[in-house]
């Protein structure tokens, strides 16, 4: 009798073991293919008792980490900042925006403060810009804990401006980051995008005429400082395609753009914010790590040659990448739209631009987005204390 029970018991035990592994695999993969394959969703939910079993242990390549931490233009940027703080623009600042506001292009032959800037109004703006630049540059360093400070640095000023009391430390419940890819024209995500608490748009991409595809709601405009540099040439520094009451945040491409910031900040009705330099450094390292990794895997060449292929001094993360990282820091749930490309789609949905900018490594950034959704624990340089929220990519 005992002999007849053992095979049955063994068979039942095998079923239990198989079911356990099937469940674990399902949790690891998350849920995919929702909505007839129109988009992919991966849950970051993990059972507390099973973290060690389910999480893929992150193993980072020390050589890649070392190379990614090297800022090729650090010394050059430092010298540019020092010249601007001294009032010496030379020929490096490309500083025409303030003088062109009033139709003057006067500048002293020795590169000192432009004559137009010596008027009381513009001189005060230069002093304000110099002060902000000095404070900003003093904080420029690698500090991965910055991700946990973004709510206070970004949402806090916006809440205070809007008269929200006691809500500054609460994250946005849901955020949509809307990229500018032409693939958006193939879908009608407008209502879905507008259903998020915060909608972040990039580089002043217009929505008029595309609301069925990209929505109409905008809660935060994310731009690079070249955009503001162009706006500073306009009367009143008009730079509000989404309305004058929409807050704007920008990352700095050139130190001299702090002078444009000072001019425009005085006329903005909504907060005009600059990304924290510690956040910039973190994003730069992450993207460079993924670019170096892709370069090594695809070319089998030495990492020392990466700079010549990607024009190292000009290499930079895209606005979209940093906007996504910002959302990861200030939102409980993140949805990403309009990231990716197709041979049958325009580069930007709202322009006729066809080619990508070579200073970005979009393929490396796509790998970053994949890990952000599927395997956030393998993303380099993030603090272990920071928890990545659930992220959804809509294709």
UniProtKB/TrEMBL annotation:
One of its GO terms (cellular component) is Golgi membrane. It is found in: Golgi apparatus membrane. The keyword Transmembrane helix applies. It is a single-pass type II membrane protein. The keyword Transferase applies. It comes from the Eukaryota. GO terms for molecular function: sialyltransferase activity. InterPro entries: Glyco_trans_29, GT29-like_sf. Its main location: Golgi. Keywords: Glycoprotein, Glycosyltransferase, Golgi apparatus, Membrane, Signal-anchor, Transferase, Transmembrane, Transmembrane helix. Belongs to the glycosyltransferase 29 family. This is Glycosyl transferase family 29. It comes from Dillenia turbinata.
């Amino acid at each position: 009798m005992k002999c007849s029970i053992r095979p049955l018991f063994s068979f039942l035990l095998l079923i239990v073991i198989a079911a356990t592994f099937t469940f674990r695999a399902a949790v690891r993969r998350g849920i995919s293919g929702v909505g007839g394959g129109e988009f992919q969703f991966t849950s970051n939910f993990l059972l507390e008792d099973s973290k060690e079993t389910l999480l893929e242990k992150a193993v980072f390549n020390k050589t890649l980490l070392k190379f990614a931490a090297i800022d090729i233009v650090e010394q050059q940027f430092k010298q540019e900042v020092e010249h601007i703080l001294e009032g010496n623009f030379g020929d490096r600042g490309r500083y025409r925006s303030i003088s062109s506001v009033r139709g003057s292009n006067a500048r002293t032959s020795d590169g000192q403060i432009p004559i137009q800037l010596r008027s009381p109004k513009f001189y005060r703006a230069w002093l304000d810009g110099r002060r902000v630049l000095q404070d900003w540059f003093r904080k420029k360093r690698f500090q991965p804990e910055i991700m946990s400070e973004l709510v206070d640095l970004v949402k806090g000023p916006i809440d205070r401006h809007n008269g929200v009391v006691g809500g500054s430390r609460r994250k946005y419940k849901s955020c949509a980051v809307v990229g500018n890819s032409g693939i958006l024209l193939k879908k009608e995500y407008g209502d879905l995008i507008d259903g998020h608490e915060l909608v972040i748009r990039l580089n002043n991409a217009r929505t008029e005429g595309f609301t069925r595809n990209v929505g109409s709601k905008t809660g935060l405009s994310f731009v690079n400082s070249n955009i503001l540099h162009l706006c500073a040439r306009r009367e009143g520094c008009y730079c509000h395609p989404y309305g004058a009451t929409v807050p704007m945040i920008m990352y700095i491409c050139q130190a001299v753009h702090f002078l444009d910031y000072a001019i425009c900040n005085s006329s903005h009705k909504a907060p005009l914010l600059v990304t924290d330099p510690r956040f910039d450094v973190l994003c730069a390292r992450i993207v460079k790590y993924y670019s170096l990794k892709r370069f090594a895997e695809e070319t089998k060449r030495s990492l020392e040659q990466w700079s010549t292929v990607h024009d190292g001094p000009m290499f930079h993360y895209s606005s979209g990448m940093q906007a996504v990282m910002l959302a990861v820091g200030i939102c409980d749930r993140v949805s990403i739209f309009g990231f990716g490309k197709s041979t049958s789609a325009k580069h930007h949905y709202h322009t006729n631009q066809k080619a990508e900018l070579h200073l970005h490594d979009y393929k490396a950034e796509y790998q970053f987005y994949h890990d952000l959704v599927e395997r956030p624990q393998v993303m380099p340089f993030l603090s272990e204390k920071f928890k990545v929220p659930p992220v959804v990519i809509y294709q």
